[in-house]
Every structure is written in C-alpha cells, then in structure tokens.
Amino acid sequence: MLGYQSIRPFLVATVxxxxxxxxxxxxxxxxxQGDLKSALSAYAVQTGTSLIYAISAVQGIQTHGVQGxxxxxxxxxxxxxxxxxxxxxxxxxxxxxxxxxxxxxxVIPLQLAQATTAAKASLETVTVTSSKIGxxxxxxxxxxxxxxxxxxxxxxxxxxxxxxKQVPNMTFTKTNFSGYSIQLRGIGTQAxxxxxxxxxxxxxxxxxxxxxxxxxxxxxxxxxxxxxRGPQGTLYGRNxxxxxxxxxxxxxxxxxxxxxxxxxxxxxxxxxxxxxxxxIVDDRIDLRIAGEWTKRxxxxxxxxxxxxxxxxxLWSGRVTLGFKPTENLTTTLVWEHFSEDDDRMRxxxxxxxTDQPPTSINGTAVPPPALDIYVGxxxxxxxxxFNADYLSQSCAPTGLYSPDAxxxxxxxxxxxLVALAVxxxxxxxxxxxxxxxxxxxxxxxxxxxxxHYLAKNDTLELNADYAxxxxxxxxxxxxxxxxxxxxxxxxxxxxTSPGIFNAGNHxxxxxxxxxxxxxxxxxxxxxxxxxxxxxxxxCSDRIVGxxxxxxxxxx
Length: 555
What we know:
Among the domains are: 3-121, Phage tail protein beta-alpha-beta fold (3-Layer(bab) Sandwich); 144-249, Ferric Hydroxamate Uptake Protein, Chain A, domain 1 (Beta Complex); 257-348 and 449-490, no CATH class. Helices cover 8% and strands 36% of the residues. The protein is built from 7 helices and 34 strands. The protein is elongated, with a radius of gyration of 32 Å. The two termini are 63 Å apart. It is mainly beta.
C-alpha cells in the first residue's frame, strides 16, 4: 500500500488545495512551458481545483504547458503529457498528481496549502525565460522585473522609454544622436554610437541585438518584457554589464485566436493593433501574425515654418511560425519588420543664456569683439587675431527655470561663423541670430529646417528546443538583423538673421556657392548681401546647419 504521512489542519507541508471547480466548462488557458510545479500552481489558481502532489516529486520536471480554450480536465491532461505523471480523483473532487509507477513502500511527504483567497487568485503568474531555466518570476533568484502584455496595456507602457515608470533603478536618456542610453542601478554608458558597446543589452526572445529600435518601436503582442538588473554576461555576453532588457514575443498556439484594438486621441492620434493565431496542422504547425500602426501630429511647433513637428508615423509587423515535428522538439521561426517615416525630433528645445564676452581679465583690458578684422582685409585672411570673441562660450550657465535661460547664443563666438569671416564671407554688422530671446514655451522652437526621421529594421530568428529528458532541454538560437536609419534636423534650432553672407569677389558656379541676394538693400539687409546655395540644403540667405545621422544596413 501507499504510505502517506498524516496531514493536520495546522501543518504546512507540500500539497496545494484550492476551491473546488468542475472540469466540464471550457476556459481560456495560457500556461507556458517550463517548470511543472509552476504550471500546476497556475492551473490551480485559474480553475480553483484542489490538487494534491508531492513537491519533491515534481521539482525540476518540465512541462510543455497548455494554451487554448479547453475544459479543465483536458488542460490538466496536456500539462501532464510526457511528464510521467497521472491523475487520481477523490470523491471530494480533489485531484492527486502521482507518478505512473511508484514503489508500494514509498512514503511521500505532503503539504497542505490553504484555499486561495480571491485577491491572491487574481495575482498574475509571469513566467521568466531570460534566466534560461524558466519558472515563476516570484521564484527566480534574480533581481528582475517582468511585465506581461496585460500589465503593459493597463499601465499605458507603450514602448521602451516608458519602462522607467515601472522598473526600479532604471533610467533612460536620449541625446542629440540617434542612440540612447539605458542605466540600471546607476550603471550605463554615455558613449552612444554604432561602435560603442552598451552596458545594458537589449534582447529579443533571449537573443541580444546591438542594432535595434528599442527607443522608437512600441510594444505589441508580447508575452512579457523582462528587465534583469546586475551583470548578465554569462548568458548575454559582454554587452550586459549592468543588466538586460528582454522582449519576449507571444508564441503560436494550437487554438484559433484573434484580437484587434483601436485607439483614438487628440493631436489626431490613431493607433491600431491586431493579432490572429491559426492552427494549421493540429498542434504540429501553428501560425501567428501580429501588427501595430501608430500615427499622430507632433506635440511641438516650429514657429519659422509654422508646422507641427515631432509627430509619429510608424508601423511594425511580426510573423511567427511554430513547428513541432515530434513531442520533444519545438521550433519557432520569427520575422519582424519595423518602419518609420515622420518628423520625429532627436532633441527638442535648446535653452541658453547669452554669454557676453568680457571687457577685461584681472584688470587687463581685452581687445573688443571685432568680427570685421577678417572682412575686407585680404592680408589677414586665415590669420587668427585674438579678441574678446574667443573668451565667450556662446552660452553661460543659468538655472533651468530662470527667465534668462530662454536667450540665444552669442553668435560671434561660434567657430563656424569665425571660419566664415576668415574666408571673407561674413557681413560683420549682422548678428547671426535674429532675436535675443526665444519663446518660453518648451513645445515651441525656431528652426529653419523641419526634422525628418526615416528608419527600417528587419529581424529574423530561428529558435529550437529539444527536450532530451523532462529535466534537460537543448536550446538552439539563431538571429539575423538588418537596420537602416536616416535622420536630419536643424543643428541650431534658433532663429537666424538674413544678410549674413558677403561673397566679396567669390561667386558661385553650377548652381552652388555664392550668388547676389535679391533682397539686398531692403530692410536691415546689407546692400552687398549674398545667398549661399548648398547641394543638400538648397539656397539660403542665413546660416543653416543640418545635423545628419545615418546608419547603413548591417547585421
């Protein structure tokens, strides 16, 4: 006979008992593959069924999980399939999980778990995959935050930058370049470029990709987003000194599913998201297709062009094919495409307090500002003459909320303006900036150029899991990534003055170079003013600087 230790109401041993429920009604299950104990716990919480099993017996056993609209009995049978365990029912409705074959003299210590309260029953189970061992996030010995798709939607966590609202010790910064910096526990890197290794790795289905669009792309149809704090180099390589952000996409199931949602808001905001899951051949071949599209007006206004900027027009699509040729082998092929073409700004308003040059230093007079020392004097062209302009940094330190933070740079100290004067092409009497102050509205900028942001990315993955034994799984992961980025915006973002160019004896040719300004002599524009024609920016009567960022396709 089977020997069991006695169970008393006040003892806490190793069995889960939950409120009774019948097994006839169909329920939507989404219990992922992984640890059998975690799967049974999730099943008991969802169905309210009383389960009795030995913790030591199921510890370390792996299950393929269950997905789909099934009865509780069918769902439990799928969880136990291939694990070597069977069910035995008691008249009370409780179900014992036991091995198919067991010694008659085996004594199994059991544990009685009290009935789950309603609040505890509603607690969502998030299974972590980034640790490579699987299991409930509450039982993984790693400092980790895991958010399911439902949690992301409920908290309006739309994309990567929004994770700072949900993840402790996480900061996210974006600079004038197209890269970004994630810091965990204060550890990260500010050297953001294509040739720089990040301190926090960004992974898609456990495969890290240095070239990604974590900053731009929005979350959709994900199983969960995991943020691991602390060094993760053993599993993710040298780019994970501070941690890992792992995005896990939803996998195909053997049940037909479909979902669609639409969001509409102000600034002409529109967002569409859809998903369809199609079982093709029983539970052997399954196909899942998902996509997301977002478009809205910009929140910022360019006063020079009178256009709204920093809008969004992007979309993503993903196709996942699940193939399970045998009971022990599961493969998934994932292709994802991301595309964006809009007027996103990499940086917005620039604050500055005009740094006027000093008149003296320690009682010694400084030669006054004299931009015209370079103009009209051919004998000094190319010779740097020291004056007060060299002692100004253009912008001086000030408080972020100070009224003088909304001034403009001291233009005569700008290196490219001095270079223009050295070449004899600058009118010394024209201040390069048209005004001394700018709007105090942080959403209003003054820019001669509207930003343009164009990005495309394709990611291909092939993942395979082979269960050698219930406790040992061989995993193969292959990934390929191709990325393209073209981004331009005004380098100045301050209103500049017309009439700054003076060509002297230099003229243009072939449509490029200096040409007479049709507006010369009108208003405050000098009579000898010229326009400059650039092959990329076109013709302009004022200083225009374009900041261009480009990443060519690569893997």
